[in-house]
Specification:
mainly alpha, single chain, 2 strands
Length: 235
């Protein structure tokens, strides 16, 4: 399928209700409002296609950008490519659920994510922390340095309350992910969650959200999820 055909297919799958939901979360025009699950049959037809992914991502259309992440070939992308994608990721559903997810399937994931975390830019930091969540939730514990992850937990404890809102959310998720998916530092992450306590996320004109990693961790422990790893990161 070529670019024009894919755009026509995506437009046909669009729903006004879903479009409104995406806009309420930070998306803006152009977009069609395609449910992520509705993209799966199309993705199966195309499989990986990096040139097509690049064309779609460059449109600025939210649905096309999201679909680009599904069909991208992460191993064909360089650090410069990921930085370019991040430059165009204008809200968290792109930074954390498209760019960070795609990055997590590469060999350069930790190197790039570390740079983004240190960038001081809200969405880059958010994507960096989110990338680690995707990594820890999928890859074997042995692939990570325990001392490095421990240091990152300390960084979260010391800086989360003063960080930008989207970064706060990703950091909070990092604590939770370490506690559930990275067994060597389970206890440390549980203690970090208690020390951090409630995290307030401001949402513009909407009521603020309060995140509490310790509660979410306990819920997953009660379900016997300690050590949980996803089989796949991308859909």
């Amino acid at each position: 399928m070529d670019f024009e055909m894919v755009m026509q297919e995506l437009e046909a799958l669009g729903k006004e209700r879903i479009k409104r939901t995406y806009i309420s979360n930070g998306a803006h025009e152009p977009l069609f409002g395609v449910a992520t699950g509705a993209m799966k049959p199309l993705a199966k037809k195309i499989k990986k296609n990096q040139p097509l992914a690049e064309q779609l991502y460059a449109t600025g259309n939210y649905d096309a950008m999201y679909f680009a992440g599904i069909i991208a070939d992460p191993m064909a992308m360089t650090e410069a490519d990921f930085d370019r994608w991040m430059d165009a990721a204008y809200f968290y559903m792109l930074s954390d659920y498209v760019v960070a997810v795609t990055l997590s399937e590469t060999d350069i994931a930790q190197v790039v994510a570390d740079k983004w975390i240190a960038s001081g830019e809200e969405l880059r930091m958010s994507a960096g922390w989110s990338c680690y969540c995707w990594l820890l939730g999928n890859r074997p514990d042995a692939e990570f340095s325990a001392s490095k992850i421990e240091s990152m937990l300390d960084q979260v404890e010391n800086t989360i309350q003063d960080s930008p809102d989207r970064t706060k959310s990703a950091m909070n998720n990092f604590i939770y992910t370490v506690a559930i998916s990275y067994v060597p530092l389970h206890e440390k992450a549980v203690e970090t969650a208690k020390a951090v306590g409630p995290v307030e996320i401001r949402r513009g004109t909407k009521k603020s959200s309060i995140l509490l990693a310790s509660e979410n961790i306990q819920k997953e422990l009660d379900r016997g999820k300690l050590g949980f790893k996803r089989k796949y990161v991308r859909c």
